[in-house]
Specification:
single chain; alpha/beta; Aspartate Aminotransferase, domain 2; Aspartate Aminotransferase, domain 1; 3-stranded antiparallel sheet; binds pyridoxal-5'-phosphate
Length: 496
Amino acid sequence: MKESKAVRGLKIAEPLIFEKSRKGRSGFTPPPDRFLGDVKAGIPASLLRPEMDCLPDVTEPEAVRHFVRLSQFNFGVDTGFYPLGSCTMKYNPKINEATAALPGFARLHPYSPESFSQGALQLMYELEQYLGEISGMAGVTLQPAAGAHGEFTGMRMIRAALERRGDVRTKVLIPDTAHGTNPASCTLNGYQAVEVKSSPRGVLTAAAVAELMDDQVAALMVTNPNTLGLFEEEIAEICQVVHEGGGYMYADGANLNALMGIARPGDMGFDVIQFNLHKTFSTPHGGGGPGSGPVGVCAELLPFMPVPRIGKDGERYYLDFELPSTIGRVRAFYGNFLVMVRAYTYIREMGAEGLKLAAQMAVLNANYMRSKLGKTYEIPFDRMCMHECVATDSHLKKYGVSNVDVAKGLIDRGFHPPTVSFPINVHGALMVEPTETESREEIDRFLRALEEISEVAATDAASLHNAPQMTYICRPDEAAAARQLILTADMMIEEG
Ligand SMILES: *Cc1c(COP(=O)(O)O)cnc(C)c1O
C-alpha cells in the first residue's frame, strides 16, 4: 500500500483507492454456509462480470476514510463564502435535505403506479404552478436536468413552433455578455449564434437588436439581469422589436435570484425561460451533483412542451402523454425529482414575501460590495447593480498581477474565488456574487482579503504568483492537467 507521506494540518494526503487495494480484502463478511469464504462461488457464472476484477479490494474503514478524506479536500457553501458570480452559490437550508430524505419521496420508485405516487405528482404539479407564478409564464415543465438542458429544451420548442407555421429560420441573436451555454444550445438546435454587441453602458439596446433582426432570426436569448449584473433597461422595446420580426424572446433565467418576487420575465415580454433550481431555489450544486432546469413558456408554446405533462383531474393527479405537437421526452422519467423536493420546500418555507426579501437582500449585498470594492478595484460599469458586480484587475497590471493571481490569493485567505475572465467583454474580470445568505461581517472579511491582496501585489507579487500555498496542489498547469489527468498521490505530494 502507498503510504500517506504528507500531512498538512489534519488533512491527510490520500492515495487512489486502487493504490490502497490489497487482494482479498473486503468490506463485508459473506455468510460461510452459503459462500464457503469465496464470494464468487455463490454467484451464477452468467451474472459474474469480468470488470469486477478491477474493483479495489478494501475494508470498510479504508473505504470510509478514503471518501471522507476526499470530501475534506473540497470547498462548498457549507465550508465558507463562495462568491462565484453567475452561479448563485447560496447556502442550502438543511430543511430541504430533511424533506428530500423522507422515505415516501426518497424511496419512491419511478415505475410506481400513479395511484401510489399521488404525493409526488402533487408536489411536482404545485412546483410547476409556483414557478409559473414567479416567472409570469403560462406553463412549466420540470423535466430538464440543468440550466443548459433547459435552454436546449426551450429552444427546441421555439424551433418546433416556427416549423409548425412553416417558417424555418436559421439564426439566434445572443449578446456578447452571454453565458457559453447559450450559443451551445442554439448550435444543438441547428441555429447559428449571432453576437449582439452591448452598449458602452453594458446593456443591449433596442437599436442594436433592430439592426440585426430579420426574417431568419428565430429568437433572441437574453439573461436579465445580464452577466455584468446589470438590468436590461430596454427589455420591453427589445421584446417588441423581436416579436414584430416574427421571433421569440428566450430568457436565460439563471439570474432570477435578482428578480423573484419583484419583476416577472413573462410580464417583460419573454416567451420562454429556464429556471436553475440549483441556483435560485437553494438546492445544492457544484461538484457535479444533480441539478434541475425547469422551463416555463407562454400560452402559445404550451402545445410543444415535453411529455409527460402532470395533469390534475378533481383531486387526482396523473401523467398526461396526450400532447400531439410535443417535442417529446427530454429526460428519463420526470427529471431529477429530489431536487424538485428541495426547491418546493424552499419556496414553501420562504413564502412569497420571503422570496422577495431574498432577492432584495441579494441586490443590497451586491451593491454594498460594489461600493466598497470600488475604492481599490476598477468597476467598469459602476452604477446600481443587481445581484452581482464585475470588477477588474487593471490596477494590478503594473505589478504583473492578474485576476487569476487574485483568485488564487483568495483561496489562501479562506474564500472560494469569484468567477474570473467572464463575461468575456470585460478584460481581467472578477465577477462577484455574494447572494443574500452572507452576513455583513463575512462580506467585510472578503473585502479586506481583496484589499490585502491588492497591497501584497505592490510589495510581494511573487507570493501571489505562488498562491495558493494552503492547498494540496499549488499551481497546476491547468490546461495540461485537463488534457493529461494524473491523479496519483505522488503527484499530489510533490506538487503540494
Ligand atoms: C449557470 C448558468 C447557465 C447554465 O446552467 P447550468 O445549470 O450550469 O447548466 C446558463 N446561463 C447562465 C447565465 C448561468 O449562470
